[in-house]
Amino acid sequence: MCSDWLGLRYPPPPATMASQLRLRSALALVTGAGSGIGRAISVRLAKEGAAVAACDLDGAAAQDTVQLLGGSGSEAGAPRGKHAAFQADVSQAPAARRLLEQVQACFSRPPSVVVSCAGITRDKFLLHMSEEDWDRVIAVNLKGTFLVTQAAAQALVSSGSRGSIINISSIIGKVGNIGQANYASSKAGVIGLTQTAARELGRHGIRCNSVLPGFITTPMTQKMPEKVKDKEVFSCNCLVEAGRCLMLPHHCLASC
Ligand SMILES: CCCCCCCCCCCCCC(=O)CC(=O)SCCNC(=O)CCNC(=O)[C@H](O)C(C)(C)COP(=O)(O)OP(=O)(O)OC[C@H]1O[C@@H](n2cnc3c(N)ncnc32)[C@H](O)[C@@H]1OP(=O)(O)O
Ligand SMILES: NC(=O)C1=CN([C@@H]2O[C@H](COP(=O)(O)OP(=O)(O)OC[C@H]3O[C@@H](n4cnc5c(N)ncnc54)[C@H](O)[C@@H]3O)[C@@H](O)[C@H]2O)C=CC1
Q1: 231 CB within 6 A, ligand 1
Q2: Where is this chain primarily localised (predicted)?
Q3: Strand partners, 206
Q4: Considering the entire predicted model, what is its pTM?
């Protein structure tokens, strides 16, 4: 029986799939939970029985996600239901530390599932990319993932708890993309960070994996020019899943 990237046994025994909530004892922290993939992950984790700490730079959006979860959770620190919303800028070290403190104060334990999903793009051609555009994307996507991974791992290790850390990279972190030198570098960094964390934290019972999604229509992708979205590499669904890395068949790469 293998586990998928959420640590769920896969395939679940059919008889229990409907009745058994496979994450019923888990507390899951999801950053970037106010939109897109982070919101979808929060919904799925809650469906599997987890209590969800939904964090976002946009605190109101995080609360909207909590409302979606059916919990009556509300502002940080006072969950009326099983879930709670938190506001934090993960790129700031004090905020990341405070986030883990707030989550532990709210739920009286560290999160056993930690999904770093918060991310941004500031797309520009390399020739025109500003230092600020570079710095901000690296700060949120890479440093933010480092800060949350570190704070969560410190909480788990000091409490002697096992856990699963899942960092959202992107296929772009493996193949690069026009207009995304900053984003591709940040996502490639997430892969290396996660591989290192896996080597260091395994002895503490903490599993670390990165996921490299392909194109998923969300508010992030809405910023792309339509003429780019119309290109085959974005519209075709020929991304092949092999293991945890999506690979682009040769004809896709050849078309760029
Ligand atoms: C083929 C190799 C594989 C590539 C990667 C595989 C992709 C598979 C899907 C996975 C997607 C994962 C996405 C993800 O992780 C989340 C995101 O990052 S969503 C955002 C993705 N961003 C982009 O792809 C960049 C899109 N481009 C832009 O935003 C603008 O073009 C840019 C700001 C870079 C430049 O704007 P501007 O100066 O105004 O120039 P134009 O827009 O007119 O573009 C000039 C010219 O270049 C072509 N072009 C631009 N970007 C891309 C691109 N990403 N791929 C291919 N071609 C691109 C554009 O079409 C124009 O071509 P013309 O023929 O001159 O019109
Ligand atoms: N949509 C796609 O095609 C793909 C997305 N990804 C990655 O998946 C993750 C989620 O992306 P989407 O849902 O598409 O984007 P999105 O823009 O819909 O959601 C990103 C969320 O992160 C939050 N956020 C941004 N900066 C933050 C910060 N400093 N601190 C805390 N929260 C912050 C935003 O407020 C937003 O709610 C990102 O890391 C992205 O790079 C990876 C591959 C493909």
Answers
A1: yes
A2: mitochondrion
A3: 163
A4: 0.89
